[in-house]
Design brief:
The complex is a heterodimer. Chain A is globular. Chain A has 2 domains: 157 residues, no CATH class; 69 residues. Chain A is mainly alpha-helical. In chain A, the strands form 2 sheets. In chain A, strands 1-2 form a two-stranded parallel sheet. A two-stranded antiparallel sheet of chain A has the order 3-4. Chain B has a domain of 92 residues. In chain B, 18% of the residues lie in helices and 39% in strands. In chain B, strands 7-3-2-1-9-8 form a 6-stranded mixed β-sheet. A 3-stranded antiparallel β-sheet of chain B has the order 4-5-6. In chain B, strands 10-11 form a two-stranded antiparallel sheet. In chain B, β8 and β9 form a beta hairpin. Chain B is globular. Classes of the chains: A mainly alpha, B alpha+beta. Chains A and B meet through β1, α2, β2, α6 and β3 of A and β8, β9, α3 and β12 of B. β3 of chain A pairs antiparallel with β12 of chain B.
Chain lengths: 248, 136
Amino acid sequence: MWQAIYEELRDDGLEIIAVAFDTAGKAAVEAKIRAADIAERPEVLARLMGWSPELWTKQAPPTYPCLIDENHLVGELYGMVNVPQGVWIDEDGRIVRPPESAGTADMAKHMNRETFEIPDEVAEYGMAVRNTYVDALRDWVKNGAASPAVLSSEEVKARMRGPAEGDVLAAVHVRVGRYLFNAGQLDGAKQHLSEASRLCPDKWHYRRQSNMLDADSIGELNGGPEFWAAVDALGDEPYYPVADFSHA
Amino acid sequence: MSEITILYGERERSGVSARPVGAQLWLSPADLHLATGWKLETEGLCKGDACVRVDASWLNDAGEIDLAAFATHLGQPVVEDKTHGIWAFGESVNARREALFSHQAPDFSLPDLDGKIHALSDYRGKKVFLHSWGSY
């Protein structure tokens, strides 16, 4: 879904690298990368993910690299807590914005749990959040280090979620889960993903992945009762904090 | 002796002869080398430029090495799955923390849909928007 932004900004020096955290690998992600999914529920998805009606109509299959990360390794390396999250890395390989929600707003609580539809005011709010994020991205691409969206290295470090013992242990469980999944041991795979989620309850991609490894759920959106129960358990806590540009 | 699978970082080796004893995992130096890349030398256990002095408690009279104790010494997390005969070893908190808080974004190499490998460092010289997602 970032293809329209890529086409706008790549000549100014932006590369997009998409990384799919999917234990089931290519089987889970191929249909989504090759875009049939966008046509399936266009209205619903445009309201959940689009920047503007005009940009939405320009959606096309990505020409930027779409990588497959069966071990959720990039999530471990960068301390990510959900998908989608974005990281900005400059020409010298320095992180100038650490993992944060990549323009997504906290809409899960307002969603119809069958159709994923959201009320108008939530759709408008979500679009405003996404546009704030993309405008900041445009500003960084054009102005580089002078962009107000670029954080100091101290601020980058302060915002980063550094690893603890539970994180590295959970990552090993994800690794074992992927091994067992590839070996056809589905129950064992799910047990290890669930254990990873138990060790790191704030890492939503582990929880969401562990719910979605059965043959009939691979590649599907996570709308199962386990997911909604976890969202409900948050109470007033945000499911997904919005990217913070307030320092700018 | 039993045959187990060892997952050591990205390495994956099944049919390894090993002797699990409680939390210990005893291997011959040759099997240790095949499964982990660590080789027993006169200086200690060595891999690349790194050598770690061998603690007497990791080495028994039969010349076997306790991989679980060695990994724990390095701060590596260890997971044993008894049902499936798997021992798995990850990266230490310190290694991950150093990589994350260094001046360079942690590098990785992953395949695209066609199996072509891309490394983050291939894109040095451009601004990179690294975007994670999942199908679920």
